Amino acid sequence: MSEQLADTKRSPSERPIKGDGLWKKVRISFKKSKSAWLGALLVGVVLTAAVFAPALAPHDPYQQDLSSSLRPPVWDGGSSQHPLGTDHLGRDVLSRVIYGSRISLLVGFCACLMAGTVGTTLGLVAGYFGGRVDDLIMRLADIQLAFPFILLATAIMFVLGSGLRNIILVLGITGWVIYGRVVRGQVLALREKEFIEASRSLGATPFRTLTRHVFPNVSSSVLVIGTLEIARFIISEASLTFLGLGVDPNIPTWGGMLAEGRQYLSGQWWIATFPGVAIMITVLGLNLLGDWMRDLFDPRTAS
């Protein structure tokens, strides 16, 4: 009863689109957006490479062959066995780029899920309850924003040590603020709406009000932020690995390949160039999808 009455009091822009209406809107918008097509294509290529890496990689990414070290790409006089050349240890660059997509996407998605869960929860609580709870959460956010990301992440990684699990944990801990601040701002505007007042007056608990009425109205913003944050986390992982604070150097990652190839840029440019291109393609695709989703769920641009 409370859900029915609360839903009738929402304005059109406040009612979350459900069921067939949502999918129809997504399909129509996707067909019209060339940038969404391009973004989906780029992300799809990277996801395919990550999922089917053992089948797509021509060589073992860990296999070393010093007799074949520093060979250029095939169009620059190299061998067809190594289309993108080899690194200083004779490892196939193409195979390492393909396998590196696994680590980058894993870090990006897991860190985004952790940061989104923590930030959205804290933003809902801060915006809905206000008062001292709001002050405490927002002061924590201000303190974290006062530290540069690289400095904060470096300090935490120095204490915890390097490794895949720790880098996901660090990115998740340091990435919640944007979710929390955006969600808090939207909840502050929503909590005085008539459908929220109706839910309270009919005896709904704060948990039920937040999960059934408030969260659906902020979920689109969380989804858009998440799409853009995955790209940022991928770059952050590459940056930390480049500094030697990320994943184990023996594991092929795009950031690690950049770090290894920086001393060969003057002559063997391909070692660092191709992982850099892979990062650029992934981030570009995710940002294009994020921009499309922002326009899709923005009530000011909705038809």
Please, could you describe this protein's structure?
By secondary structure, the protein is mostly helical. The chain has one domain: MetI-like (MetI-like fold). The protein has 13 helices and no strands. It has helices at 2-8, 19-32, 34-51, 53-56, 93-129, 131-145, 149-160, 164-174, 177-190, 194-201, 206-242, 254-261, 270-297. Mean pLDDT is 83; it is low at 1-17.
Order of SSEs, N→C?
HHHHHHHHHHHHH
Largest sheet: number of strands, sense, barrel closure: none
The chain-level structural class is: mainly alpha
Question: What is the correct CATH architecture?
Answer: Orthogonal Bundle
- How much strand content do the residues show? under 5%
Instruction: List the domain count as a whole number.
Output: 1
CATH homologous superfamily heading:
MetI-like
Q: What is the fold named in CATH at topology level?
A: MetI-like fold
Give the overall pLDDT as a whole number. Answer: 83
Number of strands: 0
Instruction: Give the CATH class.
Output: Mainly Alpha
Ordered list of secondary-structure elements with their pairings:
Blueprint: H1 2-8, H2 19-32, H3 34-51, H4 53-56, H5 93-129, H6 131-145, H7 149-160, H8 164-174, H9 177-190, H10 194-201, H11 206-242, H12 254-261, H13 270-297
Helix pairs in contact: 1-10, 3-5, 3-13, 5-6, 5-8, 5-9, 5-11, 5-13, 7-8, 9-11, 10-11, 11-12, 11-13, 12-13
Structural descriptors:
303 residues, mainly alpha, MetI-like fold, 13 helices, 70% helix, disordered N terminus
